């Protein structure tokens, strides 16, 4: 009898875990021939899977990464899996605003199109600082992408209709922004939450300022994904979290589905500035839908990155 109960418990646990990891696939089959896609952090995780999916659709895909050697290896894999040779990498360090400016200058010189920008790269909650003195979470996850998007915005408008897809996380709901201390870097988890909330406000204000100009903006929670973010922590932490991720988190390929959906779907285009989960619009907490806060963050970010 004990053995029977054990078997039933294991079966129920397996079914529950399978249900928790069940996600929707992007079923839109739109081709992207002739389109140029830029993906930050496309050398691993959700970014790499997004690159594979969009290269398969015929897009010219550029992955912008800090580690050139790792990016070159990722490009070879993306080409092999997508059966496309139209993939390349460019170097950028989002933790260094000078690097972002140099990258954008080079990109605009080399590439004559930009149809889809995917702000995918991100840092977990670690107590570290960028080269410009910002907490690494806020500096990379928000300010680096804020500057990059603004410097490329004219090219996006030239290639309209174009899209900007920014990745966030549902844990934004556990924090609010403090404009007296945007550079908060005391508790790693809360620092990360704030940076993901900033991504949401950024996407909303971007949608507002580009309304009627052919550029649409979306923010995506890809789900809790089995990615390599734990590489920034100790071996014991990686081991423990690795077990949890295996049990409860979805694959990077599944995590990329909503990103791909927002990049290609005509249905998604009806929800400019929207928040998407599992290939459909989702509802944000009321405080995360405040246009006044979104505008205030945008203006503060302009000052921080010295964007004239």
UniProtKB/TrEMBL annotation:
The keyword Ribosomal protein does not apply. PANTHER family: PHOSPHATIDYLINOSITOL-GLYCAN BIOSYNTHESIS CLASS F PROTEIN-RELATED, RETINOL DEHYDROGENASE 14. Residues 1-26 form the signal peptide. InterPro entries: NAD(P)-bd_dom_sf, SDR_fam. It comes from the Eukaryota. The keyword Signal applies. It comes from Neogobius melanostomus (round goby). GO terms for molecular function: oxidoreductase activity. Pfam families: adh_short (PF00106). This is Si:dkey-174n20.1. Keywords: Oxidoreductase, Signal. Belongs to the short-chain dehydrogenases/reductases (SDR) family.
């Amino acid at each position: 009898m004990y053995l029977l109960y054990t078997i039933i418990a294991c079966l129920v646990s397996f079914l529950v875990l399978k249900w928790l990891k069940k996600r929707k696939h992007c079923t839109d089959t739109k081709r992207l021939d002739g389109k140029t896609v830029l993906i930050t952090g496309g050398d691993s995780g959700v970014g790499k899977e997004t690159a594979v999916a969009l290269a398969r659709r015929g897009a010219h895909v550029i992955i912008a990464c800090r580690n050139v050697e790792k990016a070159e290896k990722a490009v070879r894999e993306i080409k092999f899996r997508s059966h496309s040779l139209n993939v390349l990498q460019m170097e950028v360090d989002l933790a260094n605003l000078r690097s972002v400016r140099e990258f954008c200058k080079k990109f605009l010189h080399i590439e004559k199109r930009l149809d889809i920008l995917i702000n995918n790269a991100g840092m977990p909650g670690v107590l570290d600082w960028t080269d410009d003195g910002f907490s690494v979470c806020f500096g990379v996850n928000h300010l680096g992408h804020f500057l990059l998007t603004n410097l490329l915005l004219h090219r996006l408008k030239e290639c309209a209709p174009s899209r900007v897809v920014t990745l966030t996380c549902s844990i934004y709901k556990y924090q609010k922004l403090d404009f007296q201390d945007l550079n908060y870097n005391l508790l790693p988890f809360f620092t990360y939450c704030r940076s993901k909330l900033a991504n949401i406000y950024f996407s909303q204000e971007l949608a507002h300022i580009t309304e009627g100009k052919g550029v649409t903006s979306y923010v995506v929670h890809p789900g809790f994904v089995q990615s390599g973010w734990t590489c920034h922590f100790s071996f014991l932490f990686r081991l423990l979290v690795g077990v949890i991720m295996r049990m409860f988190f979805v694959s990077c390929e599944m995590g990329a589905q909503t990103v791909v959906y927002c990049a290609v779907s005509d249905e998604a285009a009806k929800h400019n500035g929207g928040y998407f989960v599992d290939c459909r619009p989702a509802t944000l907490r009321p405080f995360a839908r405040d246009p006044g806060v979104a505008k205030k963050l945008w203006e503060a970010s302009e000052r921080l990155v010295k964007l004239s």
